[in-house]
Amino acid sequence: MTAPLLPPEREELRRLLAEATPGPWAERVWHGTDEVGWTATGPHCDISEDETSDEPGCSAYERAERDAALIVAMHAALPRLLAALDAAERDVMEVRRELERVKKVRDQHAHMIDVACKERDAALAALATARPIVEAARALARHVQEHRLAACALGVQPHREWREREAMAAALLDLSPTPRDDKEPGNG
């Protein structure tokens, strides 16, 4: 594996690029010779390679030296730059796959949450419907208990119907009937 291009190396490439002749560059073949070189094209290239300038570092030779240094550095860095680009693309693809997986899980959980919310809403609606029934059952249980106590106080044996109502009310309320002796008052 190729070593990554370190930040100081990237900064050096940026420095060389800033000092080189601005692009775009094009390959140039000098007709009638075996020489091949490069030339910058565009409106910023106002000095030909044959001209000189009074500004320091602006002679064609000095520009060619800077350009050559950039070319050498770029050629040396290109394999690592390409490897870094390949690794970054692989990382991006891996992140995209993971994101798709997370989206699927999120969608599954969202569906489960929707189902749970619907079940909760149904349970709340059932509870709202059941609440009056529970209250009626409680009232019935109190009524049966009052009649039973009154009957016991009078020495009257409770009617079978009262026991059935008491059992039904207790079942509705998920209560067990109150424990009784085998002998109820008035049976003795």
Write up what this structure looks like.
This protein has about 190 residues and is mainly alpha-helical. The protein is built from 3 helices and 2 strands. The protein has a two-stranded antiparallel sheet with strand order 1-2. Strand 1 (about 25-30) and strand 2 form a beta hairpin. Residues about 40-50 and about 175-188 have low confidence and may be disordered.
What is the straight-line distance between the termini? 101 Å
Low-confidence stretches: 42-52, 176-188
| Radius of gyration, whole Å | 47 Å
Helix and strand element order:
HEEHH
Major pleated sheet: 2 strands, antiparallel
Principal-axis shape = rod-shaped
Structural class label: mainly alpha
Would you count the extended β strands for me?
2
Q: What's the helix and strand layout?
A:
Layout: H1 7-19, E1 25-29, E2 36-40, H2 60-154, H3 160-172
Antiparallel strand pairs: 1-2
Helix pairs in contact: 1-2, 2-3
List descriptors.
188 residues, 3 helices, 2 strands, two-stranded antiparallel ribbon, disordered C terminus
Brief write-up:
The chain is mainly α. Helix content is 64%, strand content 5%. Mean pLDDT is 75; it is low at 42-52 and 176-188.
